[in-house]
């Protein structure tokens, strides 16, 4: 039977970039890692790594082997996770990574309330971050990602959760104190708040307008953009699902509602195909809340 440990050690060295870091990750000594690599090179009569001072780089043969070793490592992690997921009781900590704006989504808060009622033994750990995270490295059970982040990810299992419309909005107080907005051209005479420069196309029937906003107030978090917009500091582009509650209670008002902006898809993402009972419970509730009409 083939011993897979040398192949796993080789994959770890490539990912970590050094014998020492690979040894720490595998919980073995650097000497043991080196012996695994030497064994591969000896048994298969091929040089896999080039060592220059403190730098380790794969040879052509090492690069050819790397992809297979990485797949083997992921498969072994899937096997381990599958065995762990045989537990059927929905209990313990559940780590969820998601964009900061979801904190204000009525559907998401509805899901949290349902989870607390149905599964009181699940302890939520919410990781709000507007950039994609390494789910396996950070031990995230479940993530919500926009389409553009999902496109960058590999080895993730995804299912679509929601499609939200982008909308320009402002507080009624801001709009009452500033120049009326009757057309897209009027947008350039106002203060803007954004977490990323705005490059969007507005559409009304056969008419389009390329909106480009790259100055005024910049924030590094979407939730902060929304809070400052509610406070009356200017216009911003928000997602319909995140501001539904604030529009309904009059804290925010949609600007140029006849002009449509692109929509954005969000996905539920997991690092493994087979889920624990606690993760499956949260997925079921989220799908129930977001997909209901």
Automatic annotation (TrEMBL):
Pfam families assigned to the protein according to its UniProt record, in alphabetical order: HTH_1, LysR_substrate
SUPFAM superfamilies in UniProt: Periplasmic binding protein-like II, Winged helix' DNA-binding domain
InterPro entries hit by this protein: LysR-type_TF_proteobact-type, LysR_HTH_N, LysR_subst-bd, WH-like_DNA-bd_sf, WH_DNA-bd_sf
GO MF terms, alphabetically ordered: DNA-binding transcription factor activity; sequence-specific DNA binding
Record keywords: DNA-binding, Transcription, Transcription regulation
HTH lysR-type domain location: 2-59
Protein name per the record: LysR family transcriptional regulator
Organism for this UniProt entry: Conservatibacter flavescens
Transmembrane segments: none
Transcription found in the keyword field: yes
GO biological process, one term: DNA-templated transcription
Keyword DNA-binding on entry: yes
Gene3D superfamilies: 3.40.190.290, Winged helix-like DNA-binding domain superfamily/Winged helix DNA-binding domain
Lineage: Bacteria, Pseudomonadati, Pseudomonadota, Gammaproteobacteria, Pasteurellales
PANTHER family per record: HTH-TYPE TRANSCRIPTIONAL REGULATOR (PTHR30537), TRANSCRIPTIONAL REGULATOR-RELATED (PTHR30537:SF30)
Domain of life from the UniProt record: Bacteria
Family per similarity comment: Belongs to the LysR transcriptional regulatory family.
